[in-house]
Design a protein that fits this description.
Layout: H1 5-31, H2 37-49, H3 53-67, H4 73-84, H5 100-134, H6 146-154, H7 157-175, H8 199-236, H9 239-246, H10 251-276, H11 283-289, H12 294-303, H13 307-335
Helix pairs in contact: 1-4, 1-13, 2-3, 5-8, 5-10, 5-13, 6-8, 7-8, 7-11, 8-10, 9-10, 10-13, 11-12, 12-13
Amino acid sequence: MRIPLSYVLKRVGFLFVVMWTAATINFILPHLSPKDPVQEQVQQKIAMMGQSSEAAVEMIESLKALYGLDLPLWQQYLRYLWNTFRFDLGKSIQAYPRPVMDIIGQTIWWTVAFVGTSTILAFFLGTVLGALVGWSRAPKFLQGLIPPLAMFSAIPNFILALVLIYFMAFRLQQWTGGRFYFPLRGGYSQTMAINMQDWAFWKDAAWHAILPALSMLLVSVGGWALGMRAMMITVEGADYITFAEAKGLKNGRIFYRYALRNCLLPQTTSLAMQLGAIVSGSTLVENMFSYPGIGSRLGAAIASFDYYTMYGIIFFLVMGIAVATFVVDMAYPLLDPRISYEEG
């Protein structure tokens, strides 16, 4: 299916408008706080190092000049926009002189690994289970899945994370005489050196990611399944399903080619939004497990008023949602031939 160039350019322009709006809001919101991030950092250093007030004033002035916080707000805004769209996100206030891009680059892969995997698995499992539960010709025993799916979908993932930590990591260790099955916290063992070329490190990291991923997976499967069930019930009464039945087509073909395929569009849109919002959905879970992902790093940046780290992570979050929505919009004609962007 051919997509007109004019439509693509229009969507790309809309994508840049969304990113500019997000960047502007991202800049304004931290400045509404009455607290000064540089002063907060200097006060912490004074408390730890016992410096004099004169030295503190000089440190505050030098740091503000270094970060450009002594400039008028409009100049800060223009500089921020210029640097952001060049992906020059500056240096962290809390972890100076570490670049924000370096922080994002080292933490985002931890989040993508367990949240991305659990989200995609939950999408496929939830979509298939929801379609089968909503299909009237499916085996009746599948109806028994509705109560547990509804229960898990109603539980916040961070609450389920606490339950898993208690039973699967803490209590299980006591019940089995001290045998260590699942880790309580962290993304890898403290005795393990980070080596991306070492299979033992990947095995250890995957072992630590089981419980965080499971807490995301169980909650998400319920939501995907219930949403798919509702769409399947609606689609089953459509005219084209009745026509397919009148033609004598097999139930399996009607299910896969007619019912399931027509229910995938809203599911795919939701998947794009879920993948784009991968950071925000994992922040609390990562904090529960002390997982070294970008969500927990965002929480630490907010707690310490680290403007530039907040700017960078939130901008990447919004950009991920916008890009994912753009890609899905372009893929719609491939998923459903009835959708056409041709003019006229």
